[in-house]
Specification:
Length: 115
């Protein structure tokens, strides 16, 4: 067995046993299913890594997949309406129950760079 095969097995078994994705696994997933740039993918990871553990759990991954599917089928408004609290919590990066200009600025730059 090659070293890379062993590393891949260890990496995938970590996902199964811990039900988490690290930043590398997350980057590769997003790279294959979106057209986001690396800095946008990593900012998304940071937003989903609610407890700054360096990993995202199933709940965060599920939220991401729902957002991606809603975007694909153009039903984003329905999703935002039904899931406004979790979406707000994603944007409220410091947990202060407000979205400050500092928290909003990276989002604004992503939306203008992708248009």
């Amino acid at each position: 067995m090659s070293v890379s095969g062993s590393a891949e097995r260890d990496s995938s078994s970590a996902v199964v046993s811990q039900n988490t994705l690290n930043d590398i696994q997350f980057y590769h997933f997003m790279h294959h299913v979106t057209d986001l740039k690396k800095n946008e993918i990593m900012m998304t990871f940071d937003m989903l890594d609610w407890n700054s553990s360096g990993e995202i759990g199933f709940e965060q991954f599920y939220m991401l997949v729902c957002i991606l599917l809603c975007s694909e089928y153009h039903v984003e408004n329905n999703f935002r309406f039904r899931h406004s609290r979790p979406v707000f919590e994603l944007l409220d990066m410091d947990g202060g129950r407000t979205i400050s200009p500092v928290e909003y600025r990276p989002l604004a730059s992503c939306s203008t760079s992708s248009t």
